[in-house]
Structures are given as structure tokens and as C-alpha cells.
Design brief:
Helix content is 28%, strand content 38%. By secondary structure, it is α+β, with helices and mostly antiparallel strands. The protein has a single domain (5-147), classed as Gcn5-related N-acetyltransferase (GNAT) (Aminopeptidase). Strands 1-2-3-4-5-7-6 form a seven-stranded mixed sheet, with helices on both faces. Helix 3 links the parallel strand 4 and strand 5. The mean pLDDT is 91.
Length: 155
């Protein structure tokens, strides 16, 4: 990751730029209102990647008891393939481990091979499919999950 990238907890001042990234990256972007509510949610964990005070990426996760769900992870096109998404994932996975989370899961378009490849690199496995989950264009989602060994016996 470039030295001029800083990963910080998401602040309300980052949200307008995150909303713009949502519009650029997703066919059904989260609204500024949704993002504002999420960041204020006690179960939400959002990180922002900054380059010279410009938001260039982010990740949003909800941790509920011992389960974690990635809402979205996105990086501006010009900043991709520089390790930003990988750094966001590394920090998030460590946060899950530190909080004794059993699993971390997400949905991804079945045609989004770069994202699928990134998730597989971290040990995510395809555990299911949601038919016609996405619109514009209509497409199935793969449900990908990484399971953590929490040290508990589930016998």
C-alpha cells in the first residue's frame, strides 16, 4: 500500500465522499442517510482509506454478537490494485478475531472476479447463492464466508 494512504475510523465528514464512491462503484448505492445511520449504529464498524485527506476507499461491517457482515468494501478506480482493499480486509479480519467473531460474511456479484479473488485470498468460501440479488443488471450473488476458530467446542 502506498505510504500516503492512511486508514482511519470513518467520521461523519467522510460520508459524502463515501456516498459518491457508492454511486461510482455500485448499481444500487447506499444513500448518505443510510451511511450516516450506519456509522452511528453501535454494531457498525467502518474504516476509511484517505490519500491526502481525500476518501479513496472504505469498508463497512456490522458485528452482531459473534457474527460479522460486510456491508460494502470499495476503492476508487484510480486507487485499485495498490493494496488498499487488502489492508481494509486485514484490519477487519483482525478486528473480528479480536472480538471472538465466529464468521465474517458478505455477498458479491458472481461476475465480480477481482473481488471474489480477493476474498478467496483471505480464506472466504462460497457457502451459498442469492438468486437475482442484484439489479442493473440482474445477477445472482455469491454468499462468501470466512469461519474463525473461536476456540470453543461445538459438539
Amino acid at each position: 500500500m502506498p505510504n500516503n494512504i492512511l486508514i482511519v475510523p470513518t467520521l461523519s465528514e467522510h460520508l459524502p465522499e463515501i456516498a459518491e464512491i457508492e454511486k461510482m462503484c455500485f448499481s444500487s448505492p447506499a444513500s448518505l442517510e443510510f451511511l450516516t445511520n450506519e456509522v452511528q449504529n453501535d454494531s457498525a464498524y467502518y474504516l476509511t482509506a484517505l490519500c491526502e485527506n481525500k476518501v479513496v476507499g472504505y469498508i463497512g461491517v456490522n458485528i452482531i454478537v459473534d457474527e460479522a457482515y460486510i456491508d460494502n468494501i470499495a476503492v476508487l478506480t484510480n486507487y485499485r490494485r495498490k493494496g488498499i482493499a487488502a489492508t481494509l480486509m486485514n484490519i477487519t479480519i483482525q478486528k473480528c478475531r479480536d472480538n471472538d467473531v465466529s464468521f465474517l460474511t458478505l455477498e458479491v456479484r458472481k461476475s465480480n472476479f477481482p473481488a471474489i479473488s480477493l476474498y478467496q485470498k483471505y480464506g472466504f468460501q462460497t457457502v451459498g447463492k442469492r438468486r437475482n440479488y442484484y439489479s442493473s443488471p440482474t445477477e445472482d450473488a455469491l454468499i462468501m464466508t470466512i469461519f474463525f476458530n473461536t476456540g470453543e467446542s461445538h459438539e
